[in-house]
Protein backbone atom coordinates (compact mmCIF):
# COMPACT_ATOMS: atom_id res chain seq x y z
CA UNK A 1 0.00 0.00 0.00
CA UNK A 2 1.78 3.19 -1.15
CA UNK A 3 2.40 5.81 1.52
CA UNK A 4 1.95 9.47 0.63
CA UNK A 5 2.87 12.70 2.40
CA UNK A 6 0.64 15.63 1.45
CA UNK A 7 2.24 19.03 2.12
CA UNK A 8 -0.53 21.58 1.65
CA UNK A 9 -1.57 24.57 3.78
CA UNK A 10 -5.02 25.06 2.22
CA UNK A 11 -7.29 23.00 4.45
CA UNK A 12 -9.95 22.48 1.75
CA UNK A 13 -7.45 21.21 -0.83
CA UNK A 14 -5.66 19.18 1.81
CA UNK A 15 -8.85 17.45 2.94
CA UNK A 16 -9.84 16.67 -0.65
CA UNK A 17 -6.45 15.13 -1.40
CA UNK A 18 -6.51 13.06 1.78
CA UNK A 19 -9.98 11.76 0.98
CA UNK A 20 -9.13 10.87 -2.61
CA UNK A 21 -5.82 9.20 -1.77
CA UNK A 22 -7.33 7.24 1.09
CA UNK A 23 -10.14 6.02 -1.15
CA UNK A 24 -7.45 4.92 -3.62
CA UNK A 25 -5.94 2.70 -0.89
CA UNK A 26 -2.96 4.92 -0.09
CA UNK A 27 -1.64 5.45 3.41
CA UNK A 28 -1.73 9.21 3.88
CA UNK A 29 -0.07 11.63 6.27
CA UNK A 30 -0.49 15.37 5.84
CA UNK A 31 1.09 18.59 7.09
CA UNK A 32 0.60 22.28 6.41
CA UNK A 33 4.10 23.74 6.85
CA UNK A 34 7.61 23.22 5.54
CA UNK A 35 9.04 22.45 8.97
CA UNK A 36 6.46 19.75 9.58
CA UNK A 37 7.17 18.25 6.14
CA UNK A 38 10.90 17.98 6.85
CA UNK A 39 10.21 16.38 10.22
CA UNK A 40 7.86 13.85 8.65
CA UNK A 41 10.35 12.82 5.97
CA UNK A 42 13.11 12.54 8.56
CA UNK A 43 11.05 10.16 10.71
CA UNK A 44 8.89 8.20 8.26
CA UNK A 45 9.37 6.46 4.94
CA UNK A 46 7.12 7.63 2.10
CA UNK A 47 6.67 6.40 -1.46
CA UNK A 48 5.80 9.85 -2.79
CA UNK A 49 5.45 13.45 -1.55
CA UNK A 50 2.87 15.86 -2.96
CA UNK A 51 4.31 19.32 -2.31
CA UNK A 52 2.57 22.70 -2.52
CA UNK A 53 4.85 25.69 -3.13
CA UNK A 54 2.88 28.37 -1.27
CA UNK A 55 3.61 27.28 2.31
CA UNK A 56 3.31 29.79 5.18
CA UNK A 57 6.78 29.35 6.69
CA UNK A 58 9.01 28.58 3.70
CA UNK A 59 8.56 28.51 -0.07
CA UNK A 60 8.08 25.00 -1.40
CA UNK A 61 10.99 25.40 -3.83
CA UNK A 62 13.33 25.72 -0.84
CA UNK A 63 11.67 22.75 0.81
CA UNK A 64 12.35 20.71 -2.34
CA UNK A 65 16.08 21.48 -2.11
CA UNK A 66 16.12 20.51 1.56
CA UNK A 67 14.28 17.27 0.83
CA UNK A 68 16.77 16.39 -1.84
CA UNK A 69 19.52 16.75 0.75
CA UNK A 70 18.06 14.00 2.93
CA UNK A 71 15.96 11.71 0.73
CA UNK A 72 15.37 10.38 -2.78
CA UNK A 73 11.61 10.09 -2.29
CA UNK A 74 9.71 11.06 -5.47
CA UNK A 75 8.21 14.56 -5.22
CA UNK A 76 5.25 15.84 -7.23
CA UNK A 77 4.83 19.62 -7.13
CA UNK A 78 1.18 20.71 -6.90
CA UNK A 79 0.69 24.47 -7.14
CA UNK A 80 -1.19 27.28 -8.85
CA UNK A 81 2.04 28.68 -10.32
CA UNK A 82 2.37 27.99 -14.04
CA UNK A 83 5.50 29.88 -15.08
CA UNK A 84 7.42 27.62 -17.49
CA UNK A 85 10.84 28.85 -16.36
CA UNK A 86 9.98 27.99 -12.76
CA UNK A 87 8.67 24.57 -13.78
CA UNK A 88 11.95 23.79 -15.55
CA UNK A 89 13.95 25.04 -12.55
CA UNK A 90 11.99 22.89 -10.11
CA UNK A 91 12.37 19.81 -12.30
CA UNK A 92 16.10 20.49 -12.49
CA UNK A 93 16.18 20.88 -8.71
CA UNK A 94 14.84 17.37 -8.25
CA UNK A 95 11.06 17.41 -8.62
CA UNK A 96 9.76 14.29 -10.35
CA UNK A 97 6.62 15.87 -11.77
CA UNK A 98 4.61 19.08 -11.70
CA UNK A 99 0.85 19.64 -11.55
CA UNK A 100 -0.81 23.04 -11.96
CA UNK A 101 -3.94 23.74 -9.90
CA UNK A 102 -6.73 23.15 -10.45
CA UNK A 103 -6.29 19.52 -11.50
CA UNK A 104 -8.59 16.52 -11.43
CA UNK A 105 -8.11 13.60 -9.09
CA UNK A 106 -7.80 11.37 -12.16
CA UNK A 107 -4.92 13.49 -13.42
CA UNK A 108 -3.17 13.30 -10.06
CA UNK A 109 -3.71 9.54 -9.91
CA UNK A 110 -2.17 9.05 -13.35
CA UNK A 111 0.87 11.18 -12.50
CA UNK A 112 1.36 9.38 -9.18
CA UNK A 113 1.08 5.99 -10.85
CA UNK A 114 3.76 6.95 -13.40
CA UNK A 115 6.13 8.23 -10.70
CA UNK A 116 5.60 5.16 -8.52
CA UNK A 117 6.14 2.80 -11.47
CA UNK A 118 9.43 4.45 -12.24
CA UNK A 119 10.66 4.53 -8.65
CA UNK A 120 9.81 0.86 -8.14
CA UNK A 121 11.04 -0.47 -11.47
CA UNK A 122 14.63 -0.84 -10.30
CA UNK A 123 13.61 -2.41 -6.99
CA UNK A 124 11.82 -5.26 -8.79
CA UNK A 125 14.88 -6.27 -10.81
CA UNK A 126 16.47 -9.65 -10.22
CA UNK A 127 18.80 -9.11 -7.23
CA UNK A 128 21.40 -11.39 -8.80
CA UNK A 129 21.73 -9.20 -11.88
CA UNK A 130 21.11 -5.75 -10.47
CA UNK A 131 24.71 -4.48 -10.50
CA UNK A 132 25.61 -2.89 -13.83
CA UNK A 133 29.31 -2.94 -14.75
CA UNK A 134 30.86 -0.87 -17.50
CA UNK A 135 34.63 -0.68 -17.41
CA UNK A 136 35.57 0.50 -13.93
CA UNK A 137 32.02 1.58 -13.16
CA UNK A 138 29.81 -0.53 -10.89
CA UNK A 139 26.22 0.69 -10.51
CA UNK A 140 23.72 -0.88 -8.11
CA UNK A 141 20.23 0.42 -9.01
CA UNK A 142 18.56 -1.31 -6.05
CA UNK A 143 20.83 0.32 -3.45
CA UNK A 144 21.29 3.43 -5.63
CA UNK A 145 25.06 3.27 -5.25
CA UNK A 146 27.76 3.76 -7.86
CA UNK A 147 31.51 3.19 -7.73
CA UNK A 148 34.34 4.10 -10.08
CA UNK A 149 37.44 1.92 -9.81
CA UNK A 150 36.30 0.86 -6.35
CA UNK A 151 35.71 4.42 -5.05
CA UNK A 152 32.18 5.46 -4.09
CA UNK A 153 30.71 8.22 -6.28
CA UNK A 154 28.82 10.99 -4.52
CA UNK A 155 25.95 11.50 -6.97
CA UNK A 156 22.73 13.46 -6.75
CA UNK A 157 19.54 11.54 -7.42
CA UNK A 158 19.27 12.85 -10.98
CA UNK A 159 22.95 12.20 -11.71
CA UNK A 160 22.52 8.63 -10.55
CA UNK A 161 19.40 8.13 -12.67
CA UNK A 162 21.19 9.49 -15.73
CA UNK A 163 24.28 7.35 -15.16
CA UNK A 164 22.26 4.18 -14.51
CA UNK A 165 20.08 4.71 -17.59
CA UNK A 166 23.08 5.19 -19.90
CA UNK A 167 25.06 2.36 -18.28
CA UNK A 168 22.15 0.02 -18.89
CA UNK A 169 22.70 0.66 -22.61
CA UNK A 170 26.49 0.60 -22.98
CA UNK A 171 27.73 1.75 -26.37
CA UNK A 172 24.21 2.78 -27.48
CA UNK A 173 23.67 6.40 -28.52
CA UNK A 174 20.64 7.67 -26.61
CA UNK A 175 18.78 10.65 -28.06
CA UNK A 176 18.19 13.67 -25.85
CA UNK A 177 14.45 13.29 -26.33
CA UNK A 178 14.66 9.78 -24.88
CA UNK A 179 16.71 11.00 -21.92
CA UNK A 180 14.12 13.66 -21.15
CA UNK A 181 11.33 11.08 -21.36
CA UNK A 182 13.00 8.29 -19.39
CA UNK A 183 15.22 10.09 -16.86
CA UNK A 184 13.31 13.34 -16.37
CA UNK A 185 9.84 11.96 -17.22
CA UNK A 186 9.25 14.98 -19.46
CA UNK A 187 7.93 15.13 -23.01
CA UNK A 188 9.57 18.53 -23.49
CA UNK A 189 12.43 20.50 -21.99
CA UNK A 190 15.51 22.59 -22.53
CA UNK A 191 18.61 20.74 -23.77
CA UNK A 192 20.56 22.71 -21.19
CA UNK A 193 18.94 20.55 -18.52
CA UNK A 194 20.78 17.53 -19.93
CA UNK A 195 23.96 19.50 -20.61
CA UNK A 196 24.25 20.69 -17.02
CA UNK A 197 23.75 17.23 -15.54
CA UNK A 198 26.19 15.67 -18.00
CA UNK A 199 28.73 18.32 -17.03
CA UNK A 200 28.33 17.57 -13.32
CA UNK A 201 28.47 13.83 -13.95
CA UNK A 202 31.60 14.12 -16.07
CA UNK A 203 33.42 16.00 -13.32
CA UNK A 204 32.62 13.22 -10.87
CA UNK A 205 33.85 10.62 -13.36
CA UNK A 206 37.13 12.56 -13.71
CA UNK A 207 36.68 13.56 -17.33
CA UNK A 208 35.64 16.49 -19.49
CA UNK A 209 33.61 16.90 -22.66
CA UNK A 210 36.84 17.70 -24.52
CA UNK A 211 38.62 14.63 -23.07
CA UNK A 212 35.89 12.02 -22.46
CA UNK A 213 36.45 8.58 -20.97
CA UNK A 214 32.98 7.15 -20.38
CA UNK A 215 30.49 9.76 -21.58
CA UNK A 216 30.56 10.66 -25.27
CA UNK A 217 28.34 13.27 -26.89
CA UNK A 218 27.49 13.01 -30.59
CA UNK A 219 26.31 16.49 -31.49
CA UNK A 220 22.85 16.51 -32.98
CA UNK A 221 22.41 12.80 -32.22
CA UNK A 222 22.69 12.00 -28.52
CA UNK A 223 24.88 10.63 -25.73
CA UNK A 224 26.44 7.23 -25.10
CA UNK A 225 28.34 5.61 -22.24
CA UNK A 226 30.99 3.01 -22.96
CA UNK A 227 34.17 1.68 -21.33
CA UNK A 228 37.20 3.94 -21.81
CA UNK A 229 39.64 3.00 -24.52
CA UNK A 230 43.00 1.71 -23.33
CA UNK A 231 45.24 4.65 -22.48
CA UNK A 232 42.37 7.14 -22.48
CA UNK A 233 43.37 10.40 -20.72
CA UNK A 234 41.97 11.15 -17.30
CA UNK A 235 40.88 14.72 -16.60
CA UNK A 236 41.29 16.27 -13.17
CA UNK A 237 38.10 16.33 -11.13
CA UNK A 238 38.32 20.08 -10.77
CA UNK A 239 38.95 20.80 -14.43
CA UNK A 240 36.75 23.27 -16.27
CA UNK A 241 34.77 21.86 -19.18
CA UNK A 242 32.38 23.24 -21.75
CA UNK A 243 28.76 22.13 -21.60
CA UNK A 244 27.87 19.70 -24.35
Could you write a compact summary of the structure shown?
This protein has helices spanning about 10-25, 35-45, 60-70, 85-90, 105-120, 155-165, 175-180, 190-205; strands at about 5, 25-30, 50, 75-80, 95-100, 130-135, 135-140, 145-150, 150, 215-220, 220-225. It has about 240 residues and is an alpha/beta fold.
Structure in words:
38% of the residues lie in helices and 18% in strands. The protein is built from eight helices and eleven strands. Helix 2 packs parallel to helix 3 and helix 6 packs across helix 8 (191-204). The longest helix is centred in the middle third of the chain and has 17 residues, at 105-121.
Descriptors:
244 residues; alpha/beta; five-stranded parallel beta sheet; four-stranded antiparallel beta sheet; 8 helices; 11 strands; 18% strand; elongated; disordered C terminus
